[in-house]
Specification:
heterotrimer, B: 316 residues, alpha/beta, Rossmann fold, 3-stranded antiparallel beta sheet, C: 353 residues, 8-stranded mixed beta sheet, 31% helix, 23% strand, disordered C terminus, binds adenosine-5'-triphosphate, binds iron/sulfur cluster, binds magnesium ion
Chain lengths: 480, 316, 353
């Protein structure tokens, strides 16, 4: 039907909503394609739900661009990779490596935490000493920590290599040794009455990066200026060494969309939500429309017992309380993405079947069907040649109409904690936000963007469906 | 009506559904408007009622009713002073658009109740009287449309059109969905009403034989234009426009052995009507001038006019 | 009965089951004992008001429905209860033209596809040339201009001609035409009927022409059968039946149809009162008696059989012989609106250029 399809498309394109909808849809698709190309497929399990990946991110902080709206200079998130030592020598039976990084700290607020990670520590006999020293702008230095590296197991043989498969991360803010070192520093150099327990309460950064506040007591102000972290590695063999290291000064802001309370980059999670939402929407609606359409055609054309069975099934499905049943069933079958899709299809096809059935009933009694029968046409020919082409455009339009409801339904189920845990979706991000109290803590960046994205995705398909409305619904069709 | 035009706006361009139409309905007479489907009969009548759809491209001309210029009146004046009160209309297929959940009696008197704020009892009295006149039993007042047969529904519609005692009734294909015997009953009813009430009627139909059953004058329409007008005798027995002639010849007759002939070709597209005389591509007498210049309504004697170059030259 | 008849219909009945309650159904006697024969190359006109069972009868003869009782013979072979699977030969020979040329053509197919469909169904080769010939036969020329159009791009008359081309392409010998021209414009009606007549002569087709328009029936049919509430009430050669009806219903039907004539408006038409009763509860005795101006006691008690009143003329009325003169005036005379006087109309005027 070249002319009809063309006419339909022209009519569709003539509506403003359709144009907006198409622009939205193309954007959704482009983003999804981007994500599919650049993200690993097991993103959910390997990355999103793996806390180690996100350990060095600040927890539950807002997007960096909010700095523009804040009067205070918020701490940037600083990650320093130390790929190789700035100095390295072996003399008189001593091996010495120095890793060093200097950075400006100009924020009005203290870093959220600090952490240190080292990789590929290698030695022949005894483990090397690794010492972390923080040089402050006021000339003071704090020996934060002597990392103690365990002795090798007796059955291993030299050279011993540690921390190459999984690097050793030391959460400096939580390290008792650091607390002790900082408390000592504060008492001696800053002349403050600080106990280790105080440091445990407010975090060592308050003193590592602070000077006594004018308010007195244990309050501190940020000491702005250039800091330097030195990492000293001392061993006894020529090739005793540390491969590389990383030092993180966690900020109060992170990335484009901020982080959740596990430090996960919300921008990354939200992006991954695009293809998932499209997948859920398109697959669910296609299956729903397919099942609903086929059963509708069969029910309408065959009549009799088949029709009875299908109609009773429709009645039953239409009258069960949907949500409780869905929740119950998801509990039983487990909430994988496919199970959600299948359940949405199982409970979603009925409305279309009813409409298609009545359309088919009408078409079946039409004269041109009778004319075909009179010519000797069989059932197959009548269904495929005469009935399907007539109901297909309607089924297609319904397919588009089903898409937003599928997206919303998945979001709703996720929100009830029934999402597929292995695949992050907007609904799940929203759900975590709510259940972890983002609403009360004011972590708006954790709740509003997924909400908006769910609405946008749904609205996109609603707009397209509205654009098709005048094409499908002859009452709205303009006169030729 | 003089020089009335009504064009509809469509995707393909303006549809010239009514183009410079002149039409006169004398008091107490029935004028039949005949022509093929889509030639603009209904469109002409809705011009008088000012019941226009939204997609109007052009609406011009003069419509004089009882000495008053309808084109100068506002929509609300038309609604309160003309529509139903002075001019009423029986719409094409109206009997299938009765409200199925309201008693037919109440539907009949609705104009009375809405426009004149007549009390329920009085309205009922007048409604029943009109129903009697149209051959409906008084019991039907309390019935619902589905309880009535097609013929009775059409009588209900006619009673509704008469309820405000209008001077002019427009009847758009009032019998086309009915069986022949019921159709004849309705035509008899219309004849009675015309005589008793001294009504003027505009009777619209594609069936010239049926129209001859009621109408004193004829207006033959073709492609948005009136091509011939005249007394019934003149138009039926001595048609002056080739289209009228061909239309008459195409009617299969029951009582004579004339073999009907068809008019070759199809009515034109009203978005791009042919230039000159719009009938010229199908006309057996077509001359050079027909496709070049549009003919006028040339008088052919005794109030008969034909829109054809055969009946006049460029100077009239 | 003559075995040479293309279609022989014997006491056929079609009783629809109409639901009145949840469990109750009652029969609706749409066709109630009709016996007819359609000879080859001839047209049998079937006239009657809406609901009289014309379409049901036409569809029955094409086995589009299973009759409740009776027999159908096509070219001498019984087809009454043969399953659809063994009817293919019949489907090639017998065709139907439907009333509404818009509804009877699949709106999603082109003219080419529509006309070709029967050939595909019956696996016939050489489709392209056959489609061309069929379209030429119905005067849809130049063919190239039409084959790629969709039904909505055609006028009513053109659509109906496409439908006719589709029925002709299998070279049938029997066609049921159910009101083939009632939905199309007056000016193209005649052309469609002329095409049908010409094709009938060319291919020796047998037609059942169903209509409620007595005027076209007279013009197109050899014989006419008048149906009332599921029964044939009169049957005769078309001209005779129209000029001298032998059944009051036929006369009333004719009386109701005007010819274009300026004197019509001066008189009132003699009409039968009321509308046809429901075929669910047909009146006892003569089914027409509640509306018949001549009804007597016998009419209420005894059903008049369809009998040969005159040679070749059948009517189902107790008084056919006695009423002949009255019926003639009823059918063709007018009663003056004021005086009730009967008047003969002048013959239709022939127009001049
Ligand atoms: N609202 C509208 N918009 C566009 N075109 C219209 C509209 N109403 C009518 N037309 C077109 O105007 C022309 C005249 O229509 P109209 O209904 O007046 O014809 P008619 O003579 O009453 O025909 P019929 O006998 O089929 O009722 C037709 O071609 C029709 O398609
Ligand atoms: N499928 C059906 N089920 C029940 N009743 C039916 C069915 N088809 C037709 N009827 C009824 O049978 C009767 C005869 O119908 P049929 O269509 O044969 O009449 P018709 O003479 O062709 O009328 P028309 O001129 O309106 O086409 C009508 O009363 C109709 O309501
Ligand atoms: S049998 Fe009686 S009722 Fe029937 S048509 Fe003849 S006269 Fe009328
Ligand atoms: Mg109209
Ligand atoms: Mg019928």
């Amino acid at each position: 039907m070249p002319t009809r399809t063309q006419e339909a498309l022209q009519e569709f394109w003539a509506t403003k909503v359709a144009k907006v909808g198409v622009v939205f849809l193309v954007t959704l698709i482009l983003i999804s394609v981007f994500v599919l190309v650049f993200y690993p497929l097991n993103f959910g399990e390997e990355l999103w739900n793996n806390p180690i990946v996100w350990a060095d991110n600040p927890k539950a902080v807002g997007p960096s661009w909010t700095q523009a709206f804040s009067s205070q200079a918020q701490a940037e998130h600083l990650i320093f990779e130390l790929p190789e030592p700035v100095e390295s020598d072996f003399s008189q039976g001593f091996k010495r490596q120095l890793f060093q990084v200097s950075f400006l700290f100009e924020a009005d607020d203290f870093p959220q935490f600090t952490s240190f990670t080292m990789r590929d520590v290698q030695f022949q006999e005894d483990p090397p000493f690794v010492t972390l020293i923080l040089h402050r702008p006021d000339g003071e230095a704090i020996i934060l920590l002597d990392v103690d590296i365990p002795y090798p197991e007796p059955e291993d043989s030299p050279p011993y290599v540690f921390y190459s498969e999984d690097p050793r991360r030391i959460y400096l803010s939580g390290s008792p040794a650091v607390r002790l070192a900082v408390a000592t520093f504060a008492r001696r150099q800053l002349n403050m009455e600080v106990l280790v327990s105080d440091i445990a309460a407010v975090g060592p950064e308050k003193f590592m990066f602070g000077v006594p506040s004018s308010q007195g007591g244990r309050a501190t102000d940020v000491l702005k200026g250039e800091y330097t972290l030195s990492v000293l590695v001392e061993g006894v063999h020529a090739d005793d060494a540390m491969g590389s290291a990383r030092f993180v000064v966690a900020g109060q802001l992170f990335g484009l969309m901020g982080t959740d309370n596990l430090g996960r980059d919300l921008a990354v999670g939200l992006l991954f939500g695009f293809p998932v939402a499209l997948f859920i929407g398109v697959v669910t609606s296609t299956l729903t429309a397919g099942v609903g359409g086929i059963l509708g055609v069969i029910s309408g054309y065959k009549g009799g017992k088949v029709d009875m069975v299908i109609q009773r099934t429709v009645d039953i499905l239409n009258n069960v309380p949907l949500l409780p049943i869905l929740i119950f069933l998801l509990f039983i079958v487990g909430s994988s993405l496919w199970n959600i899709v299948i359940l949405l299809v199982v409970f979603g096809w009925t409305s279309l079947t009813i409409i298609v059935r009545s359309m088919v009933l009408q078409i079946r009694d039409g004269e041109f069907i009778q004319a075909s029968v009179a010519l000797g046409a069989g059932t197959r020919r009548i269904i495929f040649r005469h009935i399907l082409p007539q109901v297909a455009p309607f089924i297609l339009a319904q397919l588009i109409f089903f898409t937003p409801s599928a997206i919303l339904a998945e979001a709703a189920l996720s929100f009830l904690g029934l999402g597929d845990p292995s695949i992050p979706t907007w609904g799940q991000i929203l759900d975590r936000g709510f259940s972890d109290g983002a609403l009360y803590l004011g972590y708006w960046w954790w709740i509003i963007p997924p909400g908006i994205l769910i609405v946008i995705a749904a609205v996109t398909f609603v707009l397209i469906a509205l654009g098709f409305e005048p094409v499908i619904n002859p009452r709205l069709r303009r006169r030729r | 009506m003089s020089d009335v035009s009504l064009y509809y706006e469509t995707l393909r361009g303006p549809v010239q559904a009514v183009d410079s139409v002149n039409l006169e309905v004398p008091k107490g007479e029935a004028v039949g408007v005949v022509g093929e489907s889509g030639c603009g009969k209904t469109s002409t009548s809705i011009c008088i009622m000012r019941l226009l759809p939204d997609n109007i491209h052009t609406f011009t001309g003069r419509i004089l009713f009882d000495g008053r210029e309808l084109m100068d009146m506002t929509d609300s004046e038309i609604r309160s002073q003309i529509r139903w009160r002075e001019v009423s209309m029986v719409f094409q297929g109206a009997m299938n658009s009765l409200n199925p959940v309201i008693r037919v009696g109440e539907q009949i008197v609705e104009p009375l109740r809405v426009l004149d704020k007549v009390q329920k009892d009085e309205a009922r009295e007048r409604g029943v009287a009109r129903m009697r006149q149209t051959g409906l039993p008084a019991e039907a007042y309390r019935m619902y449309p589905h309880e009535l047969s097609g013929g009775m529904k059409q009588r209900v519609i006619i009673a509704m059109a008469l309820i405000m005692s209008p001077k002019l009734v427009i009847l758009d294909e009032p019998t086309s969905a009915l069986d022949v015997s019921v159709q004849a009953q309705i035509m008899n009813l219309l004849k009675d009403l015309k005589r008793e009430e001294d009504l003027s009627m505009l009777f619209i139909s594609h069936d010239i034989a049926l129209t001859s059953d009621l109408c004193d004058r004829f207006a033959v329409m073709y492609a948005g234009r009136v091509v011939e007008t005249g007394e019934a005798e003149q138009v039926l027995q001595d048609p002056q426009h080739p289209y009228t002639e061909k239309l008459l010849a195409s009617v299969p007759r029951l009582r004579s052995d004339v073999t009907p002939e068809f008019i070759p070709g199809a009515p034109p597209d009203l978005v791009n009507p042919p230039p000159g005389c719009r009938f010229h591509p199908r006309c057996p007498y077509v001359m050079d001038i027909c496709s070049k210049r549009e003919p006028e309504m040339f008088p052919t004697g005794d109030g008969q006019y034909a829109h054809c170059w055969l009946r006049g030259d460029e100077h009239g | 009965m003559n075995m040479a008849d293309v279609m022989l219909i014997e006491d056929i009945r079609m009783h629809y089951q109409v639901r009145t309650g949840i469990f109750k159904t009652i029969p609706l006697r749409a066709v109630d004992g009709v016996t007819l024969a359609v000879p080859p190359g001839q047209t049998l006109g079937l006239v009657g008001e809406s609901g009289s069972g014309k379409t049901s009868l036409g569809k029955l003869t094409l086995r589009l429905m299973e009759p409740t009782a009776g027999h159908l013979y096509f070219k001498g072979k019984e087809i009454t209860h043969v399953p659809e699977g063994r009817l293919k030969w019949f489907r090639r020979e017998a065709q139907m033209i439907f009333q509404d040329p818009f509804a009877s053509l699949d709106p999603f197919m082109t003219v080419d596809q529509i006309v070709e469909e029967p050939l595909i169904i019956h696996r016939i080769q050489g489709r392209e040339s056959k489609v061309h010939r069929a379209l030429e036969a119905v005067r849809l020329t130049p063919v190239e201009e039409f084959i790629n159009k969709y039904p909505h791009m055609l006028s009513g008359g053109q659509r109906q001609r496409v439908a006719i081309a589709r029925t002709l392409i299998l070279n049938p010998s029997y066609i049921v035409a159910d009101e083939p021209v009632s939905m199309i414009d007056a000016s193209s009606r005649v052309s469609v009927l002329q095409i049908l007549s010409r094709l009938q002569k060319e291919y020796n087709l047998a037609f059942i022409y169903i209509t409620h328009d007595v005027a076209t029936a007279r013009y197109f049919s050899d014989r006419l059968a008048v149906m009332y509430l599921g029964k044939i009430v009169e049957m005769a050669a078309a001209d005779e039946l129209i000029s001298t009806p032998l059944h009051p219903y036929t006369a009333a039907l004719i009386a109701a149809v005007p010819d274009p004539d300026p004197t019509n408006r001066l008189t009132k038409r003699r009409v039968i009162p009321g509308e046809p009763p429901s075929p669910i509860n047909p009146p006892p005795g003569c089914r027409f008696h509640p509306r018949c101006p001549y009804a007597a006691k016998i009419c209420r008690d005894e059903e008049p059989p369809l009998r040969e009143v005159e040679p070749g003329r059948y009517a189902a009325c107790h008084f056919s012989e006695k009423l002949q003169d009255d019926l003639l005036t009823l059918a063709h005379g007018h009663v003056d609106a004021s005086s009730g006087r009967s008047a003969q109309p002048p013959t239709g005027a022939s127009p001049k250029p």
